[in-house]
Amino acid sequence: MRCRRVISASRSCVKGWTNWAECWRSRRHPAEGAGSRRSGFRMTTATAIRVMLVDDHLVVRRGIEHVLADDPGFEIVAELGEGQAAVAAYRASRPDVVLLDVRMPGMSGIDTARALLAEDPDARIVALSSFTTDDLIDAMMGAGVRGYLPKEVSELALKEALRRVARGEGLARPAGSEAAARGADTGDLAQVLGAQQLKVLALMVKGLTNPEIAALLSITRPTARYHVSAILKKLDVSNRAEAVALAVRSGLVRDEDGF
């Protein structure tokens, strides 16, 4: 029994990680006489995209491994269940793309992303999570990842995302995220921005620069720059002055707000 048949019903949108696990088990324990390969053994092309997986759930890693296993355009060069060993594994395998879980015990996905980018500023990282809240997405994007995918992503969308990031491109914000669902034209601006970016906006109103905002909020300067850019985009304004004017006019930020 070929593994692809096990999840044929979910080929267009793999929402059940247990299906991937079932498929993986069928590969490890195939029916008698079946011609199934062991997971991880396959032919790849000379230009295959080298992928490193970091996720604390074995079923997730095996599911992704199955999705990529029969495609010669991808090669999984390392897989880890924790972030602590990610830098050493990255240094040894030099992947084209890192697929990184966000919430992991011990070293979080955010800290792991920062460590990988400290090792290699050109590291191409895609966050993968069951959670698509604005705060998590902003934190990961601020840490320097190239994109953020929900774990409900389809096989085709996952592969295309990996190809795009391997080419050096970035990914759009997840369609199911809070900000994307509400849209930047909503009247509920506070919910659109989220707690962290409201703090950044309040400091922008006070006239602080990006380095000053970073120091006051104990974040990096690139993270501060990311938040400012995200605020301008969400508020649909072209510069800081317009963002400040909108914040004051709408009552989104008060002069007495301070952090």
Structure in words:
With 259 residues, this protein is α/β, with parallel strands linked by helices. It folds into 2 domains: 3-166, Rossmann fold (3-Layer(aba) Sandwich); 183-250, Arc Repressor Mutant, subunit A (Orthogonal Bundle), CATH 1.10.10. The protein is built from 12 helices and 5 strands. Strands 2-1-3-4-5 form a 5-stranded parallel sheet, sandwiched between helices. The model is unreliable at 1-44 and 180-187 (pLDDT under 50). One of its GO terms (biological process) is phosphorelay signal transduction system.
Any descriptors?
single chain; 259 residues; alpha/beta; Rossmann fold; Arc Repressor Mutant, subunit A; 2 domains; five-stranded parallel β-sheet; 12 helices; elongated
Helix/strand layout:
Elements: H1 3-6, H2 17-28, E1 49-54, H3 58-69, E2 74-80, H4 86-93, E3 97-101, H5 109-119, E4 125-129, H6 134-143, E5 147-150, H7 155-166, H8 178-182, H9 189-205, H10 210-217, H11 221-235, H12 240-250
Helix pairs in contact: 2-3, 4-5, 6-11, 9-11, 9-12, 10-11, 11-12
Short description:
By secondary structure, this protein is of the alpha/beta class. The protein is 48% helix and 10% strand.
Q: What percent of residues are in strands?
A: 5-15%
- Tell me the distance between the termini: 60 Å
CATH superfamily of the largest domain: Response regulator
Helix proportion: 40-55%
Annotation field: number of helices: 12
The number of strands is: 5
**Weakly predicted, low-confidence segments:** 1-44, 180-187
Radius of gyration: 21 Å
Shape: elongated
How many domain modules? 2
CATH fold-level topology of the largest domain: Rossmann fold
Structural class: alpha/beta
- Largest beta-sheet details: 5 strands, parallel
CATH structural architecture of the largest domain: 3-Layer(aba) Sandwich
CATH class of the largest domain: Alpha Beta
